[in-house]
Amino acid sequence: MRTLASICFALCAALAAWGADLPLMFTEPYLMSLQPAVSMDVAWLTSEPTAESFVEFGPGADDSNRVKAVTREIEGLLTVDAKGNYTVPLRVFQQIARLEGLEPGAQYSYRVTSVSASGFRKSMGGFWFRTAPADGTPVRFVLLSDLQLMKQIPQTVRMAGQQGPDFILFNGDMVNDPRKAGEWFTVPGTREEDDKRFFNVLQQIEGGARLLQYAPIYPTPGNHEIDQQDLLRNRAECSREKLSMRIYMQLFPTLYPEQESGAGGKHWYSADYGGLHIVSLSLNRWFSWAATLKPGWFLFDDIQAGSAQYNWLEGDLRAVDKQRAIWVTQHWHMFNRATDIDVPYTDPAASPADPDRMTYDKSADYLMRDLKPLYERGGVNGVSFGHSHVYERYLINGVNYIEAASIGNTYRGAKDPPCSTNLDVCPVADETRFRSFLTVRVDPVRGISGEATQSSFESDKVGFLGRVFDRF
Ligand SMILES: [Fe+2]
Ligand SMILES: [Fe+2]
Asked: What ligand is nearest to the CA atom of residue 331?
């Protein structure tokens, strides 16, 4: 947990020096890269375009190289009005510098600086990262998802950071409503609890935690990355064409250089990290009305055989060097046992008996019919998802399917069946009594192994903090 004193010190110093009610820097730096062996993007968010922003970096402790940051405005963020409602546009700027020509498997230190239009200068330093190693060297990552301002997330994420991961895989649902700036970072006047805002949680350093400032993040978009969540509650007005993931994609532009945030855009990517090939897909849906009511539960992005996303994935898996292990992250679950699985992951159709009702063809579930066989053919080792806020692991035809979304609350119901009955599969591990995170090690000789670690106590006091309760 960020101490009150350090928040107050940073904020008060900025306010005193700058004379405004917003800090110059909303976040500490965060890392992203599609070529992590040789290139790293350093980004941070500021409250003005800045007169100048740059990164100083170098190998080891040398930070004598300077790269100027490019400034982009993040459009669509809101802050609160006098009544505390999110109605007021907030100008937020992303500073982003690309460090290129790096050596694989090497450590670099860096510091970031922004200078405001009025001449106030703010630097943050003492950061470092390691580039991805050459193939053949083991790598380790942590799996997180579904933060959404929940109670246990500061502790869970801090414990995950204390593992010192090489990178962070995030299975979607970063915040509840991406338009609310206060869900992402500290904005004076907003009501979210400071230690639960996305960047504050993921930039903790206590106890040696190494998170976004030290390890690149590879996220996948969840349903809560959709901007227009009011439309997801308005059955008469909602359509696929009106939805976008604009704020999410602006925050992570390195991974989505096309910035096609609307329906039909490219919302997927892949990257090699050492001996691991990482694939991030865009699979989510979420509506507040019954699936049988028009227009039904349509999909934001298609994944059926022949769709743009499926064709891209097929080509991507075909091109992977067969020495590499493959891990896929997607937000929507494959075999969940709760009620959403009763609605197949497919496009709705008007019922022949009643044109006002929608039906779903179970034999045309795109995840089961198209995606699962592609994973098996394509040599995928692990698939992780989020959304249900449970810990579940399935092992089917050599592929591990894991929901490690035990970060926030849990949506597992007491009456959920022990197995996914309509899909005829049962989890090999299942735990929803406390929160956890997963650490995965990819070793070119020994293969992939994973450990799920308990990171909270609930009322029934099962286990203890730091306990490994599942291994594969
Ligand atoms: Fe979620
Ligand atoms: Fe979700």
From this structure: 2
Whether 184 maps to a domain, the answer reads no
> Residue 14's domain spans which residues?
1-131
Total tally of structural domains belonging to the chain? 2
Residue 181 lies in a domain: no
Rounded distance from Cα 268 to ligand 1 centre (Å):
19
Same domain, 288 and 412: yes
CA distance 219 to 329: 8
Q: Please tell me the distance from the alpha carbon of residue 168 to that of residue 196, in angstroms, as a whole number.
A: 18
The one-letter amino acid at 465 = L
Contact 48, 116 (CB under 8 A): yes
Mean pLDDT of the chain: 91
Distance 392 CA to ligand 1 centre (A): 15
Residues 126 and 143 both lie in one domain: no
Note the pLDDT of residue 8.
45
**401 domain-assigned:** yes
Q: How far is the CA of 232 from the centre of ligand 1 (A)?
A: 15
Enumerate the H helices of 127-286 as residue ranges. Answer: 153-161, 181-184, 198-202, 246-251
Verify that 149 and 75 share a domain, yes or no.
no
Ligand 1 centroid – CA 3 distance (Å): 27
Q: How confident is the model at residue 13 (pLDDT cuts 50, 70, 90)?
A: very low
Q: Does 182 fall in a domain?
A: no
Residue 199 has φ and ψ, to the nearest 5°, of -70, -35
Confidence at residue 135, expressed as pLDDT on a 0 to 100 scale:
80
Q: Is the domain of 314 the same as that of 368?
A: yes
Residues lying with their CB under 5 A of ligand 2, a single-atom ion? 173, 222-223, 387
What spacing in Å lies between the alpha carbon of 207 and ligand 2's midpoint? 30
The model's pLDDT over 91-107, given as tens digits with 9 standing for 90+, comes to 999 999 999 999 999 99
At residue 363, the 3 state secondary structure works out as helix
Please tell me whether residues 260 and 126 are part of one structural domain: no
Could you report the per-residue pLDDT of 340-399, keeping only the tens digit for each?
Answer: 667 889 999 999 999 889 999 989 999 999 999 999 999 999 999 999 888 999 999 999
Distance from Cα 154 to the centre of ligand 1, integer Å: 16
